[in-house]
């Protein structure tokens, strides 16, 4: 086989609007900018919270937390098969109406005073209703949450009247990824952690692979990067409005480690170390049609990243909790095991991806301490860290637009 | 049907690992790795490795769901091997080298060990 060509420098200059200069770090720690970012970026976004298979049958529900907003939502499928979302807050005294994470029921009964609600979120019954005064029950249904579906993923909006539809929010990125067999990843695992860093540092750690040969020298670097790509170059990046996709190559080394090697031979579906199956993917994946393509990071701005290979995919989400705190969620979706040996391959994938993240997160907390203590006023981004430059520009543009809007409102 | 054998025929030498390394689920396995010394992990790894390919050959002939108990135990030993392999192959210690503490990660959902998929 021909040796793979190392991708060249030159991605950043394809997008002249991004510039090439140092980038201020203030949006990574400044509390005032953080508040503006929540307003300008997060409150008008849509958030992925699960998949339709989690509520395959009428009466099934699950709870999803929206850490940035501080409340949880109940997602149900009613008797007609329609999916609903509402805030998990009883309209009487504010307890959650469901404390279990998932299950099946016909009504939700609050465990505080026993008010109950149906699967559409409508108030069903008030215990000892006679004792209340002039209640307008039509105003006491659960607070509905706009809930829409894309490719089997359930998204919710924190706005009662969303600024944009889910389709408009997903834009070209959503259209491009449609058709990937997401539903085949039936086996799901999920890890979460509170991390003491700005939410963007978590996103950044997936958005550049320049760090891989150095920070992940014994885990992912030997199969993906070295030898052959010692500087961790990616294939390309494509910008789609606020969203973008990074495309990555691999040297496709067979793992030298014996257990890892056995696991790779027993992964259900197309393997991470072969290009097999890549031909059937939507055109948006592996856009350069590289023979040594391994995985794409398809980002939905601001904070949902799909890491997609031919055989499995993972979703990384970072929820802001403050200027220097965030909540990280990792979901892995793996194809079903055809036999018990492939169950071993699945477990290895979970363990590898988890340990890989543990390698990243400790570094991010140290970077945050440098930022919080004013040690680093600017970032100097490598050509292949261009995704971070793009993110910075989108956020700064949104904050500038918010500032203009507020200035206008003040004048009036 | 369990006919009383702890592990399928040919894997008797792994029986000594069953009490310690046949564990409930993914969460129990990662906790066990974190609580073990690298010497303990290496003993398990070194004991399992010579029979690991053969174990997978056996497991390829078995379907998930309604697994015979001896095969299910063998699978669980292999799942423990998957959990601890990075400790031996990557980190030379139970924890991720210079990493984020495992006990700060919450395992929310995981794949059942032996259930049909």
* Total of helices of chain B: 4
* Low-confidence region ranges of chain B: none
Query: SS-based structural class of chain B?
Result: mainly alpha
> Unreliable runs of chain A, pLDDT <50, ≥5 residues?
272-276
Mean pLDDT of chain A: 94
Radius of gyration of chain B, CA atoms, in whole angstroms: 15 Å
Structural class of chain A: alpha+beta
Largest interface (CB < 8 Å): A-B, 44 and 45 residues
Which strand order does the major sheet of chain A show? 12-18-17-16-15-14-13
For this structure, the quaternary state is heterodimer
Question: Please, could you describe this protein's structure?
Answer:
- The complex is a heterodimer of chains A (412) and B (117).
- Chain A is an alpha+beta fold.
- Helices cover 26% and strands 25% of the residues of chain A.
- Mean pLDDT of chain A is 94; it is low at 272-276.
- Chain A contains eight helices and 19 strands.
- Chain B is mainly α.
- Chain B is built from four helices and one strand; from the N terminus they run H-H-H-H-E.
- In chain B, helix 3 (38-60) packs across helix 4 (69-91).
- The chains are: A alpha+beta (412), B mainly alpha (117).
- At the A-B interface, strand 12, helix 6 and helix 7 of A face helix 3, helix 4 and strand 1 of B.
């Amino acid at each position: 086989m021909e040796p793979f060509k190392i991708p060249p420098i030159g991605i950043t200059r394809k997008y002249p609007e991004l510039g090439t200069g140092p980038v201020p770090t203030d949006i990574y720690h400044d509390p005032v900018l953080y508040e503006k970012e929540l307003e300008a970026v997060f409150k008008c976004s849509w958030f992925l919270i699960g998949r339709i298979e989690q509520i395959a049958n009428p009466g099934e529900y699950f709870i999803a937390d929206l850490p940035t907003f501080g409340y949880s939502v109940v997602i149900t499928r009613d008797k007609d098969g329609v999916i609903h979302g509402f805030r998990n807050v009883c309209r009487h005294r504010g307890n959650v109406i469901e404390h279990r994470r998932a299950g099946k029921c016909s009504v939700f009964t609050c465990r505080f005073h026993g008010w109950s609600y149906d699967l559409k979120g409508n108030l069903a019954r008030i215990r000892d209703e006679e004792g209340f005064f002039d209640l307008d029950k039509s105003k006491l249904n659960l607070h509905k949450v706009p809930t829409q579906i894309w490719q089997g993923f359930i998204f919710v909006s924190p706005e009662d009247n969303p600024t944009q539809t889910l389709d408009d929010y997903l834009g070209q990125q959503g259209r491009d990824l449609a058709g990937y067999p997401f539903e085949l990843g039936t086996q799901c695992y999920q890890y979460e952690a509170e991390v003491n860093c700005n939410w963007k540092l978590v996103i950044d750690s997936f958005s550049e692979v320049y760090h891989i040969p150095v920070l992940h020298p014994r885990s992912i670097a030997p199969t993906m990067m070295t030898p052959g790509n010692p500087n961790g170059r990616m294939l390309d990046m494509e910008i789609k409005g606020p969203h973008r996709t990074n495309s990555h190559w691999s040297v496709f080394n067979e793992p030298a480690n014996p257990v890892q090697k056995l696991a790779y031979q027993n992964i259900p579906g197309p393997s991470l170390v072969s290009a097999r199956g890549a031909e059937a993917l939507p055109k948006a994946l592996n856009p350069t049609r590289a023979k040594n393509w391994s995985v794409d990071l398809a980002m939905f701005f601001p904070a949902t990243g799909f890491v997609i290979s031919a055989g499995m995919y993972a979703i990384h989400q970072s929820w802001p909790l403050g200027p220097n705190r965030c909540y990280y969620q990792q979901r892995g979706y793996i194809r079903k095991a055809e036999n018990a040996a492939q169950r071993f391959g699945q477990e290895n994938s979970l363990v590898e991806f988890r340990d890989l993240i543990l390698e990243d997160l400790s570094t991010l907390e140290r970077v945050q301490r440098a930022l919080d203590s004013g040690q680093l006023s600017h970032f100097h981004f490598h050509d292949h860290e261009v995704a971070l430059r793009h993110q910075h520009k989108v956020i700064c543009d949104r904050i500038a637009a918010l500032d203009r809007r507020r200035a206008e409102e003040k004048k009036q | 049907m369990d006919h009383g054998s702890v592990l399928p025929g040919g894997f008797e030498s792994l029986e000594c690992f069953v009490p310690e390394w046949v564990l409930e689920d993914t969460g129990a396995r990662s906790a066990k790795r974190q609580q073990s010394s690298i010497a303990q992990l290496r003993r398990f790894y070194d004991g399992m490795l010579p029979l690991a390919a053969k174990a997978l050959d056996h497991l390829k002939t078995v379907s998930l769901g309604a697994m015979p108990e001896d095969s299910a135990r063998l699978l669980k030993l292999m799942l423990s091997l998957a959990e601890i392999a990075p400790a031996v192959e990557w980190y030379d210690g139970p924890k991720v080298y210079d990493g984020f503490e495992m006990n700060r990660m919450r395992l929310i959902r995981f794949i059942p060990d032996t259930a049909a998929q």
